[in-house]
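hi! just following up on the protien thing from before. the input was this:
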Amino acid sequence: MILLKNGTIIDGTGTGAFAGDLLIDGDRIAEVGDFEALTASETVDCSGFTIAPGFIDAHSHSDLQVLEGRREKLIQGVTTEVVGNCGFSTYPAPDDPTPLYEFANGLFCGDDSWGWKNAKEYLSATAAGPNASVVSLVGHGSLRIAVAGNRQGPLPESQLDTMEGMLDEAFDQGAAGFSTGLMYAPGSSAPFEELVRLCRVVTRHDKIYTTHIRSYISGVIDAVEEQLELARRSGCRLQISHLQVVGASNWDKQARVLDQIEQARADGIDVAFDCYPYVAGSTVMTQLLPQSALDGGLEALMARLEDPDKRKRIAAATDEVLEWRWNDIYISAVHSDWNRQAVGCNLAELAEEWGRPPVDVMIDLLIQERGKVNILSFNQSEENLRETLSHALSIIISDGFYVRGRPHPRLHGTFPLLLGTIVRQRNWMSIEEGVHKIADLPARRFQIKDRGRLASGYFADVTVFDANSVDSPATYDDPEQKPVGIKYVFRNGALLEGSVCSG
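and the predicted 3d structure came back as:
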């Protein structure tokens, strides 16, 4: 048995902190209380520290890295990750996985050697993961590619039947839910009725449906309404991914969006959302293009961009609908060494340096890198960020993913930043609320059994931190800095090697 002694207990439920001890017996929490006379095989003095549940990252893209023993989440106090988000999952892999690699490697930071046939295979592979428990969603984009490749548009009835059957099977094998990425081809072309059919499968299995909606820019109100109507029609539990309103001219739409969600909740729809504690986001650069240009996959896109007339039309369409300023879009990763100097530059700077319009610089980079470019973009206002982070229906996530270049600082700092900068310095919420949004709340939302709370019988996932110093020094310019203030991280009762941070 391990006794964590003399700490400040925050149990994850949102209730007030209290002084106490926590007893671990094997992989479970035996008791939380005051154990003056108890003799344990090991006692850890937690005087001056806070004892909390292990944190749950409910929106992660570490689908491959959870198998590799990477420590970026561990040293933030994360003991559970939910992967398979935004329509991207590592399964079901088709016999020829090339289209799946083209679709997903930009977020997975993968090569051409991964892929699992079904949820059972993937969950079996991750069961022995060294650092985090893995909860997996089935990605709509991956599911569609397994059935129809990179083809866009409505699918025949036979292929829809096949997709329903594969989703049924994945849920039977332990997948926790279904995700869509409705701004990413080929899922962006899926008709509403296709989504209704698949979400009815979600409802039958009492799983969760998470969605990267069709628009976070000027069309955000309609995009949210589409998903609320999908929940009404199918009866599914709806989780709107990384909710935000992008572009200064659209920021005032956030109040309307939150009103929509709150009214739907009052009307009986089981809807909530998640968000990360940064004003900037990150994705693949092909996201900036009209997604119809990706019909048929990356090679088809390259052929279009290399055709002068088609390139001109794609450039004009991109310029017409782009709601970012070019100096808000930064290159975070490229595939080749040739353009490595572009990492960290924004497209306006590159346009001036190259003597070309920004949209042409973007297309030049995509051609030179065969579509393999990641970006970081400044999206939202501090005021809007505070409103979503502190909202009663929000879960706080990282949305982090690995790149061959300069990652978003959320990969290295989300959870300590929340507890330090957001909670302690800005006072946007109490520390109990902050822990609740990364512990018990996501555990209940994603039906993660016996995790997310410090209570007798729960798995002994525990993060011990210094509430007076915890934070992340990671910045957009220098994102790979380690957090401070995380003292110990236990998963299933075991102290995780290398989990102790400085500070």
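The longest strand covers residues 2-9.
The mean pLDDT is 96.
cheers
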